[in-house]
Amino acid sequence: MVLLGEALGFRGGRFSGITFTSERQLAGGDGRRLPWASAPLFAATSRNPALWLEPSGSVVWDALRGAARGMLLWNSFPWHPYGKAGPLSNRTPELSLWKANLHVLEALLAEIGAAKVLAVGRTAQAALAELGVEAPALRHPAHGGAALFREQLREQMWSAFRS
Q: Of 86, 118, 120, 151, whose CB neighbour count within 10 A is largest?
């Protein structure tokens, strides 16, 4: 399965390099470290002494119970598009930007073959549609969507398990 998000966020993939994953989940010592992220493999990459924690990433990893076996986390726009406030801000990549980079997603989809793709949010769903790919859409966990996202992901994973 592939969980396809929108773009890397400044609290997450901008510093961790992994979609829906923050440096605190990889290098933190506050109990939020993912079970497979052992030291010294992972170290902080920002100057934030508290380490960045991405809220959406926390929801995703909680829903996955800290293990992504058989799951690829990726974004329809695989870079961090920052806003007017600079690199420590986020913005939705505009249509022309993600369309100009669809070849990256297209190459990924060609490599994964028959893997089931789940679109996390409308931007991911639109990018897939642009490539002619139909995928179940999950509510993005941000802005009050966490509970619905967890429910929809659980349903999709259970459905895939039964097939």
A: 120
